[in-house]
Each structure stands twice: as C-alpha cells, then as structure tokens.
Amino acid sequence: MTVHPFTRFAVRHKTSRPDLLTALALLALGLVLLGLGVNASSAYPVLIPFSQQQLHWWHTIPLVLACLATCVQSRYPLGVFYAITALFIADMVLGFHLVMLIAWANTAYNAARYAAGSLLRWSLVGFGVMTFGLVYLVSGSVSSATNALLQVVLTAVIAVWWGSEVRRGDESTEAERLKSLAARRQEEHEREQLLRRQRADLASQLHDTISSHLSTIALYTAGALDMSPNAQRDRSVLMEVRRSSLDALTDMRELIDVLRTFANVEAEDTGTAPPLAWQDMLRRLRSAGLELSMTAESERHVQAALTRSDSSASLLLAKVLQEALTNALKHGDGTATMHCEATTEGITCTITNPLAPSVAPDAVAPSQLSGGLGLGAMAGAVHDADGIFSAAATRDGVIRHWTVHIELPFTAPPSPSLPQGATSR
C-alpha cells in the first residue's frame, strides 16, 4: 500500500473544482455588492481624478482578475496570494472597496492553509507597511493610514488564524490515518509471523511422525531379514509394516491438509497474481536471457487464443505457457522453441528446450515471471479443463531436450481448479 503523507506540496494534485466554485461565489458576491451601490470607502483618497460614482464599476476589473487567479489557488497558494495582493493595491488607486478586501481575505486564508507560515507572515507584514505608507503619502493623515492598516491587519489575522486551524486539522487527520495504517501493517506482520511459526511446528511434527513410522518399518524389516525364514512370523512383520505405512500416510495427509489450509488463508488475503500479458511476458523472458524461437504464425495463434472471450481457458493457457517458458529459462541452456497450432476447437502448443548439464548460479528467472505451477499442478489443471498435458526428457545424441506438450480445448469446463501452493519444478 502506498502512503501519501500530508504536506504543503500535496495540494498541487488537488482538483480545481472547489477553487472554481469559490471564484464564482466571490464574483457573484462582488457583483451583487456593486449592484446594490456599495461604494468604496470615502475615508481614503482616490488617486485618479474621477469621482467614486464614475469609478464605481471599474472595481469589476480587478475583481474579475482576482477571481480568475482564485481558480488555481489550491495549486499555487503563495503565487495567487501575491497576484491578488497586487490587484488589491491596484484597486486602492480607485478607492478602498469591500469587494477586493473579501477576495484578498480569501486568498490569505488559502495561503495560511496550504503554504509555509513564516513566508506568509512576513508577506503580510510587508503588505501592512505598504498599505500604511501608501495611504499616508496620499492623504497625509495618520488616522486614515492607521484606519486602513487596522482593517488590513484584522482581516489578515482572522483569515490566517482560520486557515491555520484548518491546516492543523488536516495534519492531525493525516497523522491519525498514518498511525492506523502502521498499526494495521504491524498486525499483518505479526499474523504472518504466527503463521510461519505454526508452519514450522507442523513441519517438525510431520518430520517426527514420519520418521517414527519409518523407523518402525526399518526395525521390523531388519529383524525379519536377520532371522531365518518363518512364514507366520514374516506375515506378522509384513502386517506391522503395512499398518505403520498406512498410519504414516494418514498422518501425512492430515498435516498436509492443515498446511494447505494456511496456504488458502494466505491466498485469500493476498489474492492470486494474474499471469503477465503475452507481449510483456515475452519481453521480460527475453530480457532475462531466454532466446525463444517461434514463427509468426505460432505467435498469431497464441495471441488469438489468449484474447478469446472464454476467459477460463485463456487464463489457464497463459499460466501454463508462462510457467513452461520460465522453466525453460531456469533449467535449460537459455534457448527454447515453441510451436503452436490453433483450430476452432482448441490450441496445441509444444515447447522444447535443451537441458543444461547443470544450472548456473545466475540462471535464475525473475520471480514475477513464474506462473506458480509445477509439473503436477500444470498437468492437473489442463486435465481438469479436458485437455492433454505431457512433459518428458528426450536425448538427441549427447544433447538432452525437455519437451512440454499442451492440448487445450476452447470449450473447457468453467473455472478449472488451479492447485494452490504448488511450486515450480
């Protein structure tokens, strides 16, 4: 499971829909206030030689630009804050209006929630000083400059406090989520450790039980061989050997059933890995060192069979081919030949590879290539699907070859059972 902890950079991946709704709400509120005749504050001078009534609707221009910037405020909180602050200062030239103060308060809240606190605080201090100096230079009145500064500071304090509280709530929620995830991982780890210990105990019991029965068989047979032939005694020894063999077989089956139960539980938790896609499997096998020879016609038959609608037969074919080719890489000399023929009723595949005298230490296929089926499991799965499976070694002079032959009908019975816990040959 991948964890995405909360950081101030995670907001770059947030959707812009909430920002769009916020921008539309600010634009609608600003237009309503302007439509109702709410004018700019008369306490501050207008730097342009026009009356407030003449400049009334000119406040719409910085308002619209601020709303456009608000559409991306969650992705670029500080950048939008600087842009709307610049628009707020430009709007002061037309007069200090409430609509831009509201838009600026929103971006201050957004910056406090998603951006670094120290940089935002110094930016607000600089903006406050700039506001005080600008109003004082234009009006020459300390009271007007102080009044403007108080409005900006109070608005900023409320917006920053609110954004910081929401930010702390987000971080607390994310911390609780990570804590819960860590606890769940620890619980899963402890459960896996418990299963491993139980398997080790069962394996020890299996070893002791079978060893005891085999020791009994060895003692009886050794004693019978050391003594002179006696039909009645030898019959009693054979009966005891048979009883010990049956007891050993029964105990072995019981313990194997228990081990399979653990394997099935684990498979339910982790799920069975699906086979790789055909082209992906070929690419990985060839990159791992397998030189596979196959005609274009054979590859076309395999592709057609794997893309058929009856997914059970296609899945089984993919698993068997993946395991057979992986075995050719692991146990062969790095070369293999595959020939496939398909009809409307089924597909036949033959995979042949020379057997290496010994498997080199580095001749190991990547773990993700294995299909998870051994020879017995492959044969059982193909037979359950009403197919034919054979695997045998042949000798051609001094070279031994391993040949896997598969005949799989397309009208296979639904959901053939794939043995769990099987291992590769």
UniProtKB/TrEMBL annotation:
Domain of life: Bacteria
Reaction equation(s) it catalyzes: ATP + protein L-histidine = ADP + protein N-phospho-L-histidine
Keywords assigned: ATP-binding, Kinase, Membrane, Nucleotide-binding, Phosphoprotein, Transferase, Transmembrane, Transmembrane helix, Two-component regulatory system
Transmembrane segments annotated in the record for this chain: 79-104, 119-138
Species assigned in the record: Yaniella flava
UniProt keyword annotation of Membrane present: yes
Domain Signal transduction histidine kinase subgroup 3 dimerisation and phosphoacceptor: 199-261
A GO term for molecular function: kinase activity
E.C. numbers: 2.7.13.3
InterPro entries in alphabetical order: HATPase_C_sf, Sensor_HK_TwoCompSys, Sig_transdc_His_kin_sub3_dim/P
Pfam families tied to this protein: HisKA_3
Name assigned to this protein: histidine kinase
